[in-house]
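From the methods appendix. Each design record in this collection lists the tokenized structure first, followed by the designed amino acid sequence. Records were kept in a plain field format so they could be parsed without special tools. The example shown here is representative of the layout used throughout.

RECORD:
FOLD TOKENS (421 positions):
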């Protein structure tokens, strides 16, 4: 059973009671990398780290020990639009978990010596991504897709910006962005809504409402396609192709997800079968969706031998044109719907996933969305809708970014122009 309460200062508390011995709790913020300027890019992620580095009552080591003593799992993450701190514990530890999470959120100190230590950790994290080509290529691709818009920034931030961040800057960022109206407290599992609200009222009810509400985010422009090679001495070429998609709230989101599955979202998809199984051109190839509240994109990733890049591009373009022209046979579409619905219902077995789901729905749609509504959304999609959507989204030339031992003269991008069917 889902319940929602809004505290007097604007903090939203949502719960989904599920028979279980565990409960998953998260503090979610409508704050992420796209809310940053170039001069403070990486602030959301840096703050995420710092919330585990000491409060007025707990040192960093005491925080780590207390999470371990609770016996569950804890973690945090930052994305373009959200930041989350969460943990899953046995239900009889819920009160202790709420007190701990609230302390981190409300009373973290951001001591300069801790900031200096964590700065080096984050710089190493940036280096790790730069040394991991199948991660780095996605950052390079989105920097071209979104250009100077904040979505083109990395979540971790630029090395120079992170190296210069101070405790004063981080505290100022928290004061400006971590306001009650941006906060959602979510829980799934064996949780009583009334008691849960009472606990959070005691912990966060003292926070003053923000002034002026949440600022509107800048909607990104759709730019002319760019294709760029980033030369690096590697065994493979890591390649991302893609184009603009739909916002996560779009009515056609169900059709878009099925289109993605048919194109490259699982083992029976066109790209997996043709590029990997029949042509043997890549071990890893897949399509994926990255959707935001006001925009999004459809991407294709593959790792390929430098000598096979042009062949792989040609096959991918051929399969995109085939999907635009033919759509999917009724059996393939039914299989894609079954795959999508199975993923939804299987995820319901995990408390952390349930908690994450209700939090994301609140932040994105402002309401609870039943599993049955999502299943019905997939069931309603018709084959001709897939064809129409593919024809609309995949008719313009694709963006492309390649990382590896290539030169411009080595690559034939022409098949990615896609205008002709």
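DESIGN:
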């Amino acid at each position: 059973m889902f319940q929602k309460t809004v505290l007097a200062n604007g903090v939203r508390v949502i719960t989904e009671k599920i028979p279980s011995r565990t409960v998953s709790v998260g503090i979610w913020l409508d704050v992420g990398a796209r809310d940053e300027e170039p001069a403070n890019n990486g602030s959301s992620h840096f703050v995420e780290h710092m919330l585990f580095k000491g409060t007025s009552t707990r040192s960093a080591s005491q925080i780590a020990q207390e999470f371990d003593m609770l016996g569950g799992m804890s973690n945090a993450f930052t994305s373009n639009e959200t930041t989350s701190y969460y943990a899953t514990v046995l239900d009889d530890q819920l009160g202790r978990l709420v007190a701990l999470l609230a302390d981190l959120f409300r009373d973290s100190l951001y001591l300069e010596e801790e900031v200096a230590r964590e700065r080096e950790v984050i710089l190493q994290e940036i280096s790790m991504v730069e040394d991991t080509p199948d991660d780095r290529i996605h950052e390079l691709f989105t920097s071209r897709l979104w250009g100077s818009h904040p979505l083109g920034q990395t979540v971790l931030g630029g090395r120079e910006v992170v190296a210069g961040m101070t405790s004063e800057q981080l505290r100022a960022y928290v004061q400006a962005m971590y306001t009650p109206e941006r906060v959602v407290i979510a829980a799934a599992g064996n949780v009583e809504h009334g008691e849960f609200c009472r606990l959070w009222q005691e912990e966060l009810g003292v926070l003053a409402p923000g002034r002026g509400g949440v600022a509107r985010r800048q909607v990104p422009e759709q730019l002319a396609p760019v294709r760029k090679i980033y030369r690096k001495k590697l065994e493979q070429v890591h390649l991302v192709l893609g184009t603009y998609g739909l916002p996560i709230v779009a009515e056609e989101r169900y059709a878009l997800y099925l289109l993605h599955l048919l194109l490259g979202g699982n083992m029976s998809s066109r790209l997996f079968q043709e590029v990997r199984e029949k042509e043997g051109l890549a071990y890893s190839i897949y399509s994926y969706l990255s959707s935001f509240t006001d925009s999004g994109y459809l991407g294709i990733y593959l790792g390929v031998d430098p000598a096979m890049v042009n062949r792989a591009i040609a096959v991918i373009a051929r399969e995109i044109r085939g999907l635009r022209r033919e759509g999917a046979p009724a059996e393939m579409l039914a299989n894609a719907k079954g795959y999508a619905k199975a993923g939804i219902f299987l995820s319901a077995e995990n408390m952390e996933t349930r908690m994450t789901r209700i939090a994301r729905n609140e932040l994105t749609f402002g309401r609870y969305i039943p599993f049955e509504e999502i299943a019905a959304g997939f069931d309603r999609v018709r084959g001709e809708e897939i064809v129409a959507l593919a024809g609309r989204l995949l008719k313009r030339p694709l963006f492309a970014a390649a990382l590896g031992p290539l030169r411009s003269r080595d690559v034939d991008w022409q098949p990615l122009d896609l205008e002709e069917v």
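APPENDIX NOTE: The chain has two domains: 2-204, 227-417.
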